[in-house]
Predict the 3D structure of the following.
Amino acid sequence: MDFRIADEDAAAFEAISAFAEKELRPRAREIDEASLFATVHIPRLAEVGLMGMNLPERWGGAGVSPVALFLAVQAMAAACASTASLVTAHFLATDTILLGGDDALKARYLPDAAAGKKLGAFALTEPRAGSNPADMATRAERDGDVYHLIGTKHFISNAAAADFIIVFALTDRSMGARGISAFVVERATSGIEVGPAEKTMGLRGGHIFEIMLDCRVPAANRVGAEGEGFRTAMRVLDNGRIEVSAMCCGIASAAFEAALAWSKQREVGGAPIAELQGIQWMLADMATDLDAARLLGLRAATLRERGARFSAEASMAKLYGSEMAARVTDLALQIHGGYGYSRSLPLERYVRDARIMRIYEGSSEIQRNIIARSILR
């Protein structure tokens, strides 16, 4: 499979990589240690086109290919995974409108979202309905030209700072997942309460929140027809899993590069530890693992670009990438020895940031279920 990208996409990727190294990486430690919300970067992220990189030019986006998007997210995550988390959560929200909304809804939200004037959030998960939407309790009851939304969403990235939130709710409880609809809910709507940011192990600058809903939303803010919400969410999550795999590759590549450099400069017995076969084998395993994860992610992105089905491939990329990131960051810390365990170096942050990748946007176990259904179909 050919993973080459167009010249304009390559130029966009190079610009994002340079931006990430110059502006995101220098603040990554501060964002982590102070749990500083990565929204501080939004003006510059918008200026370089990152807030709308997933959108076509018609709706104010950069119009780049999914392969270029994969590489850009990887570059962001290598510099600051918290910032990449904020941006990709925003992508979930705008992808929902792009894939499921009508032109009127797209015109109202997407150009401002791409310009960084509006931040999005994606609210699917609930306290008792994470990986199983059939257990969703949030409901939307129609009353003329409005819907009354009642329920609670949990672990929602960006929620407190978002200007709009994509909320999934049951409009027909008897239909299960096929009774789920999606709505664009303005954050300023009366009856929305957002709790304090959760204190998390990693991605401390990519804040997540609980949302309590008892509000009314215009019917015009429904994304697609009633009952189409679940199908739209699954399409959006297919995209999102490629982006998670890119984040995994970014975090792991940062850890690998740090371990490689350390092995060349750290001396034991008068020689660099890179001369030790045990270290060489660790580096070889890390490089191979990282390349395999990148290739899986690029395959899924290429299929997405071609308009082919890619659900199983996205799940494979997300599953392997998240498991790989755990292995590579742990080995990188091990190569650093006690220095890696110290917070004076970023190795322990890479380990913490990588840990959530096996859980969110579908846990590793859920990805295995998706892949198994595909190969058994």
